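User: What would this chain look like folded?
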Amino acid sequence: MARPADRFGRILRTTSLAVVVLGAATVVGSFLVRDQMRASSDRYQLVRKTSQSELFGDVGEPIGSPQVYVVTDPQAVLPGTGADGVKLLDDDYLRKKGSYPLQMQTVDAIADYARLGGGLAVLAGAGGLLLARRRSAQRSATGSRS
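Assistant: Here's the prediction, encoded as structure tokens.
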């Protein structure tokens, strides 16, 4: 039967290795997800239909300034373009569906935090591996005590 110190060293090595692998996967995954989202993003202007815009056959009243959004529902995109060739998003449709698009700057911020967390996990796991290695080397140098 393994002694508690040997069991602790094995658990520390295994856990540390898992933390390193998961942290590295988080870092790589954050780049992949961000790039996939960026590929499906474009610059849009949110517009809201008002009674005046419907009366005059206008597209709608712009909300804020154009932003880069990740739009997953193509029905939310209105036909035509706004000023400077910006695509238009129907705010009323998005609110009715309860599906608001992500801004690309939000995706970038979350990916940055995921990379930071994954990098810290890799460092913590590497520290655990070094600690387990050092404990193992000390135990073998002093001999096993009973």
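The chain has a mean pLDDT of 87. If you want, I can go into more detail on any region.
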